[in-house]
Write a structure and sequence with these properties.
- This is Coenzyme F420-0:L-glutamate ligase.
- Its EC number is 6.3.2.31.
- GO terms for molecular function: coenzyme F420-0:L-glutamate ligase activity; GTP binding; metal ion binding.
- Helix content is about 30%, strand content about 20%.
């Protein structure tokens, strides 16, 4: 078994850019080409920038709630206002960050990106990343004549772990979640709960080449996954908060402080 990752460097992406043109330039520069069955991973920040979702903080009108939460969590009131506007719920936070619920995902600061944005600006997350993934997949099919899958990726942290990992926020062309229930493990026992986060795993692998800083790699080709590629638009299934191990434990099934056994 073998899987290949090909990172594609590009010029700096600016608002109004045609992402497919930027992709074609990156492929030519690398001497690479997309093939049937490939999965193309695209940075959400890069795509959102091209779509004009860059906001100058000085242009943001700030409300009272944003002022209050900004002081509490040491976040600029302008950024806090955008967080409130682009999240369903603010759950709490630490200095510099709040934990928010957006489109069924837990994410810091509503997924708003302050890095890889011009000074005094932030990049808003995509409103419908699955639709944008589909648009890219269809565009590649028309321009390049290949059938691929597309993942739009961002980075997140895991609870109580340092470091960022890639996560899929949009997917098109394949099933982002694969149900492994009923499959046997190495000892013949049937799996009862497991679902494989295929799109997230692909995004996290691509993150090794995309990086978090000035790498300038907004696209990664993932080749040799062996997954079924087609006109599949199932998105990424989420679960109710009370069914989530982390969220449910903290908000619905927490134990009293006296019962905690901390190391």
């Amino acid at each position: 078994m073998r899987m290949e990752l090909i990172g594609l460097k590009s010029r700096l992406i600016r608002p109004g850019d045609d992402v497919l043109e930027v992709l074609e330039g990156a492929l030519e520069r690398e001497g690479a080409a997309l093939e049937d069955g490939d999965v193309l991973v695209v940075s959400e920040c890069a795509l959102a920038t091209a779509m004009g979702r860059v906001v100058h903080l000085q242009d943001v009108k700030v409300g009272r709630r944003a002022m209050e939460l900004g002081r509490r969590y040491c976040i600029s009131p302008e950024l806090m206002q955008l967080i409130l506007e682009h999240s369903k719920m603010v759950l709490g936070g630490i200095e510099g960050y709040v934990l928010t619920l957006r489109d069924g995902f837990l994410c810091p600061n509503a997924g708003i990106d302050s890095s890889n944005a011009p000074d005094g600006c932030v990049v808003l997350p995509l409103d419908d990343p699955h639709a944008e993934a589909r648009s890219l997949r269809e565009g590649v099919g028309k321009r390049m004549g290949v059938r691929i899958g597309v993942v739009i990726s961002d980075s997140r942290t895991h609870p109580l772990r340092l470091g960022c990992v890639g996560i899929a926020v949009g997917v098109s062309g394949f099933r982002g979640i694969v149900d492994a229930r009923g499959q046997c493990d190495l000892f013949g026992k049937k799996l009862a709960i497991t679902r494989k986060a295929l799109a997230d795993n692909i995004a996290s692998a691509a993150q090794l080449l995309m990086g978090e800083g000035d790498e300038g790699v907004p696209f990664v080709i993932v080749r040799g996954t062996g997954i079924e590629i087609g006109d599949i638009e199932e998105g990424i299934e989420t679960i109710a908060p009370q069914e989530c191990l982390y969220f449910g434990s903290l908000y619905f099934g927490s134990i009293s402080p006296s019962e905690l056994e901390l190391p």
